[in-house]
Write the structure tokens for this entry.
Amino acid sequence: MILTFGSPIAVYGQKLQENDLSKMTEDIHKETYTGIHSVLVAKGGKLSYQQYFNGFTADSLHDMRSAFKSVTSLLVGIAIDHGMIKDETQLVHTFFPENKAFVTDPLKRKITIKDLLEMRSGFDCDEWDDGKDCESDMERSRDWVQFSLGLPMKNQPGKVWAYTSCDPMIIGGIISKVSGMTIINFAKKYLFEPLGIKNYRWTVDSKGQATTAGSFFIRPADIMKIGQLVLNKGMWNGRCLISEKWISRSTTANILIPDYSFVKISQSTVATPRPAYYGYYWYNEEIVTGGKTYKAIIASGNGGQYIILIRELDLVAVFTQGNYGSWKAKKAFDLLTKYIIPSYS
């Protein structure tokens, strides 16, 4: 499906509630909602709303933060589709036979790619709720993949959900191993070039290895292309970039995140909170508003970087923000339930 960049407001069968979207724009400009950098909405593959705020423009490269982990999940699917990885049940140590950490720790030898994708590696790391932050130490190291592989174990792999950016770094190392390419060149060949994404910037370690956990800078309109690709079940302009099987499996989340809801934190007055679930670097949460329930597939990054897909509405919403370390980042879900969903439902 071609993502068409058209007028700010479009019509799909029935007229959109233009006043709702105009009111949203007005409220953001009045700083009723602070720290917003961009909001984009596409329905039916057509970009119908595109606004930039607080000095940001369509050409501004924005850090996706941890929302880029969801892109890393797509890259795993591509590697599996091309036969470079058999499937996500493969043991991680088989990709790094030279690494002595697996010899000295039998528990570590049990880690699978699936464990990494589900944040159930068992490493003694947890960035969630101000836990043990291994990411900062990783960033100070020379080799981010080797640092991550060398982490001490705390739990049995596959048992305990503990969010860490070190898991997707190992994923990037695996893809580089099996493809014989840097993750930069792999993503360019199999994902970004087919999507027509050319303007972006990676963050790399001292060895030139690019992060697959975040700190990837890209234009919001190109983030929208990634969201549309997932909504299209891996198809782009008649070409299958990622198998529908992988899109379905990777975006179906079944790991309950205790006491967590995007809608609840947003303090929305028009939606009923539901629990959030985690999958292969994607979140799921039911959006209950206006007497209806919509299943949202979410890529989420610190500060308010979101890709939100709602299949029932054939809709993708992208938010970029500067609300780092603040609950205000979740106000995107207030905007979603108060203005965006009523305009397109």
